[in-house]
């Protein structure tokens, strides 16, 4: 502590007493104010140390954000796995705020033959930034580099990912209409049992994540899947080409329809089904609406319905090795209807193996499905392909009584409501003959 001399204090006291200013005398005699002198001397050092601590914390947070960006960008590059991997990785890094060439940010993406922890299909991402110094320069820290004449410190992050086999999906929303692919509104009964779901636009699950292992979206995945992944490459329709196996329309322009009015003619007997059909050809083309008039069994047949719906009419259509195909033109209904049950197991071999229901992809209207569990009830093993359908699921989808535990749904877009229960399970899809839709590849961090 700095002290004033006794002689100076005595002289000051004398002057102050003459003036009668006792408060000033007491204040002048107090030597505690000298701390201010010491603080003034060391304050630059304290300020510099505090500044260095604050800046070091910022550098650490900045580096952590860069690492998250590098990890995600490397995974995205591995998932893309094609000619656009550089653009995809840089776009993902930009979503985290690290735009290559913006300020001092550099994002470098590579596809080396090998890297640490990776021997093939390697994708590397490195991100660097030069952060200007602020208060830390007060204590003499000059950083690690300069930009112009200004000292900066270099912050870096890097990641390596490899490409693995693409993910398979039990639910694929093609979203060619541009609508949100997957929407779920409080669906605690929906249990994808280890399956993955994919939307070619966005996916939003409110209140329940469908219990899908992975929820992926070309846009933003918000709540779908135990692990949610956004901004992945869209999945191309893998099944549109199967329409080439639909035989030519042989109906001659005649497509009987169920009577909408009392005066309308009734369906002909050929459009009404009941009993067991064991001698049908491997591909059977029927014309117009088809209606069950009793419980019906059709095995080992591809039933092609030209310009008509399939009305279960309160009965059960049971089929092993059965595929129901809807084809024709857009002026007719191309959907299952009625209050009965579909108990269908798809064929396990042949051109239509794995397919239970198939809507011709050229059909774009009168294809929507609103399924409440009884219109008809779906007990299905195989794939339901509705590429342009707006599907609403509010009831239970179960496996066929004579099929494998495998269900896959391909739609334009789907809404699953609170009572919607999808048993979807891909454990037995391979043995059921079904090749599930897959992403081009998945990225997996290795370093």
Provide a compact summary of the structure.
The chain is α/β, with parallel strands linked by helices and 447 residues long.
Q: What does the overall shape look like?
A: elongated
First-to-last CA distance? 57 Å
User: Total strand count, please?
Assistant: 27
Query: Low-confidence parts, pLDDT < 50 over ≥5 residues?
Result: 1-24
Helix-strand category: alpha/beta
Mean model confidence by pLDDT: 86
Oligomer: single chain
Strand content is 25-35%
Query: What is the total number of structural domains?
Result: 2
The radius of gyration is: 36 Å
Query: Helix count, per DSSP?
Result: 4
Description:
The protein is of the alpha/beta class. Helix content is 18%, strand content 33%. A hairpin with a 2-residue loop joins β3 (145-147) and β4. It starts with 5 loop residues before the first helix and ends with a strand. It folds into 2 domains: 45-164, no CATH class; 171-440, no CATH class. The chain is elongated. It has helices at residues 6-19, 22-29, 34-80, 85-95, and strands at residues 106-110, 122-132, 145-147, 150-164, 171-173, 182-185, 197-199, 203-206, 214-217, 221-222, 227-229, 272-277, 283-287, 290-298, 301-306, 310-311, 316-320, 322-327, 336-337, 341-345, 355-359, 369-371, 377-393, 396-398, 407-417, 421-422, 442-445. The strands form 2 sheets. It has a 22-stranded parallel sheet that branches. Strands 1, 2, 3, 4 and 27 form a 5-stranded antiparallel sheet that branches.
């Amino acid at each position: 502590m700095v002290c004033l001399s006794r002689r100076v204090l005595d002289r000051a006291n004398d002057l102050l007493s003459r003036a009668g200013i006792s408060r000033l005398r007491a204040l002048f005699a107090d030597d505690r104010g000298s701390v201010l002198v010491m603080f003034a001397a060391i304050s630059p050092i304290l300020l510099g140390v505090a500044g260095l601590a604050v800046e070091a914390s910022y550098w650490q947070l900045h580096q952590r954000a860069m690492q998250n960006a590098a990890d995600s960008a490397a995974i995205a590059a591995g998932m893309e796995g094609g000619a656009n991997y550089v653009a995809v990785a840089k776009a993902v890094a930009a979503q985290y705020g690290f735009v290559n060439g913006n300020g001092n940010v550099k994002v470098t993406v590579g596809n080396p033959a090998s890297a640490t922890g990776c021997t093939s299909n390697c994708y590397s991402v490195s991100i660097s930034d030069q952060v200007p110094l602020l208060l830390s320069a007060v204590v003499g820290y000059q950083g690690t580099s300069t930009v112009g004449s200004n000292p900066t410190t270099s912050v870096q992050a890097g990641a390596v990912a490899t490409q693995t086999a693409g993910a398979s999906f039990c639910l694929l929303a093609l979203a060619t209409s541009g609508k949100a692919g997957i929407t779920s509104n409080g669906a605690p009964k929906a249990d994808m049992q280890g399956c993955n779901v994919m939307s070619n636009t966005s996916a939003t699950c409110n209140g329940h994540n469908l219990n899908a292992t992975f929820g992926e979206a070309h846009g933003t995945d918000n709540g779908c899947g135990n692990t949610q992944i956004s901004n992945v490459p869209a999945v191309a329709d893998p099944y549109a080409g199967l329409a080439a196996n639909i035989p030519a329309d042989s109906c001659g322009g005649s497509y009987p329809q169920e009577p909408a009015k009392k005066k309308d003619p009734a369906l002909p007997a050929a459009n009404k089904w009941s009993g067991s059909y064991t001698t049908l050809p491997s591909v059977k083309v029927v014309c117009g609406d088809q209606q069950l008039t009793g419980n019906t069994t059709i095995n080992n047949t591809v039933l092609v319905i030209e310009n008509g719906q399939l009305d279960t009419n309160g009965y059960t259509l049971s089929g092993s090795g059965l595929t129901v195909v809807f084809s024709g033109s857009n002026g007719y209904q191309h959907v299952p209807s009625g209050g009965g049950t579909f108990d269908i197991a798809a064929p396990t071999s042949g051109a239509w193996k794995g397919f239970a229901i198939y809507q011709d992809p050229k059909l774009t209207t009168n294809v929507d499905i609103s399924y409440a569990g009884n219109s008809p009830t779906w007990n299905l093993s195989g794939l339901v392909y509705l590429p342009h359908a707006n599907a609403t699921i509010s009831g239970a989808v179960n496996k066929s009584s004579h099929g494998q535990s495998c269900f896959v749904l391909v739609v334009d877009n789907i809404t699953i409501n609170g009572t919607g229960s999808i048993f979807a399970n891909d454990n037995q899809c391979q043995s059921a003959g079904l090749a599930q839709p897959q992403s081009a590849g998945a990225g997996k961090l290795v370093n």
